[in-house]
Amino acid sequence: MDTPERRAEMTARLARETGIDDAMIERLVRGFYARVQEDPLIGPIFAARIKDWEPHLQRMFAFWSSVALMSGRYHGQPMRVHAPLPIDAAHFDRWLSLFEDTARELCPPVAAAHFVERARRIAESLELGIAISHGVMLNKGERYKMEKGNAS
After folding, report:
1. Which candidate, 102, 106, 87, 19, places its Cα nearest to that of 49?
2. pLDDT, tens digit, for every residue of 63-90?
3. Domain residue ranges in the chain
4. In this structure, what are the phi and psi dihedrals at residue 76, rounded to the nearest 5 degrees?
5. Distance (Å, rounded) from C-alpha 46 to C-alpha 131?
6. Three-class SS of residue 122?
């Protein structure tokens, strides 16, 4: 059973093992989304949906705290938010590339590896969920490609 004490112990252990703290999460998230906003492939998708970046960044601080440190700070539904987006494997590849580059530049190696491993799992899960939401069942190792004319 997940108790607040057990979660706090787990979060503290992960922080000790990786060196990740709230300040590092904030630097990573801000650095990453600065790159996203400038990116010609995924930047426009974000720009069409986010007008005020600060609330989004605050949600992402909580999200990455939950993902990296199991803090339980994030209470959202990422699949519901991402399923209707006009994105496919190419977008996830670019998202991962930007994220991995940012993590490796801004974080110590152990922390970067921890963030990257989780980002890869998130991208794989979201891509699979988006494919399913479009009626596409992917086989192991298969990637989701939007049908032509399906992007907006």
Report:
1. 87
2. 999 999 999 999 999 999 999 999 999 9
3. 4-133
4. -135, -175
5. 19
6. helix
